[in-house]
Amino acid sequence: MSSLTYDLTLAGLSVGSAAALTGIGLIVTYRATGVLNFAHGAIAMVCAYLLRQFTVEWGWPLWLGAAVTLLVVAPAIGLVLERFVFRPLAVLGGDPAQTLVASLGVFVLLVGGAALLWGQGARADAPTLVAADPWGQLAVAVAIAAAVGAVTRWTRFGRELRAVVDDRSLAVLGGIDADRVAAAGWAFGSFTAGLTGVLLAPYVRLDPYGMPLLVMEVVAVAVAARMRSLPVAVVVALGIGVAQSQLTRLHPSGWAEPLVQAVGANLFVVALLIAALVLPGVGTRDALPRTATARSETPTGAWIVAVILFLIPLGFAGRDLHTSVQVPALGVILLSLVVVTGRGGQISLGQAAYAGLGALFTALLAAGRFPFLPALPELTALLAAVLLVAPLGLLTGWPAISRHGLALALATFAVGVGVSRFVFAQPYATSGLTLSRPAGFADDRVYYVLELGLLAGALAATRLLRRGRTGRALAAMRDHESGASAAGVRVPSLKLTAFVAGAALAALGGGMLAMGVRAFDPAAYDPVRGLLWFAAIVVLGADNTLGALAAAALLVGLDAGTRGGVAAAVIGVLAVLVGRFPAGPYETVRAAAVRPRSGRRGVLTPLGVGVRGRLRAGGVVADGGATGRGAEVAEASAAGWAGAGSTAGLGATGMGATGMGGTGMGGTGMGGTGIDTTGLGGTGVGRVGRGTRRGGDRRRDARSTAGAGAEPPRPAPRAPRPLKPMEHAHQDDGSPGAAEYGGPSRGLPGAVEPPHALRARRLHVTYGGFTALDGVDLDVLPGRISAVVGPNGAGKSTLFHCLAGTLRPDHGRVRLGERDVTRLSAHARTRLGVARTFQQLAVFPSLTVAENVRVGAEQGRVADPGALERALRLFGLDGPVRALPAAGLPTGTLRRVELARAFAGSPRVLLLDEPAAGLDTGEVAALARVLRALAADGTALLVVEHDLDLVADLADVVHVMAAGRIVTSGPADQVLRTLGPRDTAAGR
Fold first, then answer.
1. Residue 766's beta-bridge partner residues?
2. How far apart are CA 862 and CA 857, in angstroms?
3. Alpha helix locations (H) across 438-544?
4. What is the DSSP letter of 340?
5. 834: which strand partners?
6. What are the CB-based long-range contacts (under 8 Å, 24+) for 815-818?
7. Mean pLDDT lowest for which of 821-825, 881-885, 980-984?
8. I need a labelling partner for 716 at 20 to 30 A (CA). Which of 278, 688, 922, 938 fits?
9. Sign, Cα dihedral of 379, 381, 384, 389
10. Residue pair 690/661 in contact by the 8 Å Cβ criterion
11. Would you state the pLDDT for residue 593?
């Protein structure tokens, strides 16, 4: 027994040593570049094939082949990848979405290339570089880990490496060549990948798919080490290897036997599941492959061409038609990725698992082998399988609630690998399964017609998720998850919905595919296929249903008409180039076709002519950021809203638009039931008018505009006043005005709601050993504007996040009225009436301006049909700009879009994080007027702002923060007068 234990331990050490090398390479690459190299296993496979080619096919000596493979080819692969694939991405900002897709692209490119060069069959004659004695392999792994540890700890390069890992841009400013460090990291990572491949090749199946997947399974070693600790990675790898080897001696009887055998043979997969689903996630940045530009509708002509192409196979016969029946089925599977990735912006590398489960369940149900259910007709079995698999989408949807980026990618990949290893690869589940087509659809041509009908239904369902309230919510979640949550979107439940719908579509497509080939083939749903499908749908347009159909035809057609691997190679090339064509081939071609026409001189509309004349007369420079007609409309809208700030107030006739620049827009004044010409409650709001001047002292501008020699006194605290419904106003010249803000309520008609204060008590937040908040108490009262100022690092943002629900304090309470909301999420607080804006713009670029605001109106506290139009009018967005996509609009316009979205949800409390950022003086003046009107209506407002001039003009009470505490509070004039020059500069 002791001899058996010793032998198994030695075998486990051999496997663990190879796994340790993989972990070391992944960690070094990640620490040097920030990239979790999903292509690590593919590089290992290519190096193993090359060593075999050199020694077996060409007859080189083993030492020469090994030296060339490990010391020349493997590092060269890493250097090429760093220079031509990942360095351009780093220069463009290192978008994690593009980096992930590029890494997967390298993976599928190398796999496809290997399949083309060496075929898809397994090789059993790989040369043995190190003897089977595990001590040699263990010594190699330990020596490499020790060498890397010594270099990173005690050498200059190690210090540079740590600096680049901590902050690449700061390291560059310090004179460190970050590109050289990254290149060295990639070269070493590729060397360890090659060493892993040549060590494993004699003992595992050497084929283009098996080895890459085997190496990817041991990513768990690096994840368990938190992508940092080499000793931990080595210990974990050796421990899992020995444990897996020892489990092979267990042979229980009964139902537990196949389960124990499966676990014993796949302990690294179990470790991957635990590391990906239980341990804290790796990578904090989002890696969601979301659309960064506006949605572009697919031309009708393209759909007509697609329909014709999909009808052509009806004229085929024989093998051609038998191949064609796979295209609609794969199209449905890829549509599931459109739902999850394109619509919901979530990474899913495990869709092949759901497709395979759909095929397996269909076969089991039709054969009467599914537990507790009788044999069902094939079509009924397919629909039942869809219903059974759909809830299993929670396996990947649940991790998506709290994971992003690399952590979510690993979690979904782990689920796919786990299903493949523990379900598809087990004979007890899949042996002897055959699958027939539904009665009456046995013929290929008739079955193809059935598939087209199911594909049309899947297209209709997918299209529904792009329209309406759910479609806008999904787009908002994809474009800016935090912004969507702040708008009231139930992000967790929406993620689960996307994954469940995606699982259902994948199961439908998988069942269709199995019926098409009349068999359940586990290899058709291998996890590597899932990676290929994900890369294909992303590079061909994740949010484009036509792209899914094109990808299906491409994948099936290329592999059927040529040697296997061509499709993977083509998709790999496109994915590698994702950094240069981030919108995909279709959008790139469309943009190139439009670009030549952009040189023609356009003709201004009458509105544009008027705006241009006023801008030239007033000497105003419009905000940049948009081009073409969209920029002119945005400028006109921004100027109209900003000019409104130059009037004395909001009145019964609204804010006019008779001019711009220093003259303001109109002089209709205010009166009636609105806010009077002297301000809110009769005290000097007129001093807010700042014209269109930029820079300088805003309070000085306000005094000169008001025509007063001294600054008017601030209004005393006042009781909330009701506001009347806003009406669109026009001047006699027909130019758009602003809106009157008022009415009995913005919520339910005729309802008078009690005021709700937001109160924080003894909030404590710590990060590591740093205390960000230390016992903060704060009241945000209805009808008052509170401001928080202080230097950077004082805790303002942390306090803001605690109030908004994006951060839960370690201690303390947050109450809204009488309700404790401390544990409520951001979207739950929004639905209770706590709205917020962000310091960095949180808009949804793929939606239009009106759709952005509509999200807030639909998801906010009160479902008010008129909230959208009121918000658009109030913030000067009700003109042609409302139909423009948010992508590419000027910063000032986007700031107003965000404010309008927050307002459209009828909030009781409005939290504004630097709301004046990106606005010119005229727009800031108009913003100040709107905020005062909101406070007069009873809204509680909290402003975190660096502009102390704006704070002095706006706030009723100011809180000064320093070192995580509120050090003083009081009326704005008194508090700000006590701040010294250094404090004032810090507050700015």
1. 771
2. 8
3. 444-464, 468-479, 481-486, 491-517, 527-539
4. I
5. 909
6. 815/758, 815/759, 815/760, 815/761, 816/756, 816/757, 816/758, 816/908, 816/909, 817/754, 817/756, 817/757
7. 980-984
8. 922
9. negative
10. no
11. 60
